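ligand=farnesyl diphosphate
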Amino acid sequence: MRHTVPAGMDRKESEVYLRLDPARLPQHIAIIMDGNGRWARRRHMPRVAGHRAGVASVRSTVETAARIGIPALTLYAFSEENWKKRPKSEVDFLMRLLCRYLKAEIKTLNENNVRLQYIGRQHELPESVQREMEEASCATSKNTGMLLTLALNYSARSEIVDAFRSLAEAAARNGGLDHIRVDEQSISDHLYTRGLPDPDLVIRTSGEMRLSNFLLWQLAYAEIYVTQTLWPDFRGVQLLEGIEEYQKRDRRYGGLGKDGHAPQHPSHHGHAGANR
Ligand code: FPP
């Protein structure tokens, strides 16, 4: 029997949704939003026009993910490197845009039962931005649906450094390293993403094949989906297409495929090679 389409979806989204298996949706999707500058350049517009247009993509993606029941969505909005390597005028624009987004979106987030939180070195952001962030997360804290995590001033390496520091502090408080547990679970518990399942799917827009210092620990076994679509052109339907591709993959976590064999690469007859 065909499953029913959640309310609010347009025709194109419904078409793709009906091809999905609702029982095998990714539990956590992470997205590297890229290509705003190129989108603007192609239109002979300033780079910031691409960022402005990218807000509609955020809205559509969040709504669609919430409607179909994705439990967690994480968006890479600004990396730590973004601050250091972009002109001050662009960074200032992004800050204002973020504040405007946080104010304007509370209503839509509440309508969609979405809870908002952040990862990244929040304390290094301008105080006015931190205040807006706090307000928006408080205003959505009672929601019980999707958890939307915005990565702001985020760097995966800094996150790992902070986790080491916090583990070392725990050791110092508890009588030394021999008195604390150090394993994969305890490291995960000291990351900014503690409590979140690792992403099953990471999407990157604009065709770049890089992780760019995003969730390096958490993405260990994620399926990677790269689309040529530039972020300002990305909508809910492209998210569903990414999920459709994800559902075609055979996830092996270092083991063998469903048929009991590691798939053989056509150019390496008889040599499956390292099975990752
Ligand atoms: C990458 O495009 C995008 C960013 C660095 C900023 C992301 C911001 C948004 C999507 C809009 C606002 C977001 C929120 C959450 C309100 P790029 O500038 O690196 O593009 P390019 O590689 O084509 O130059």
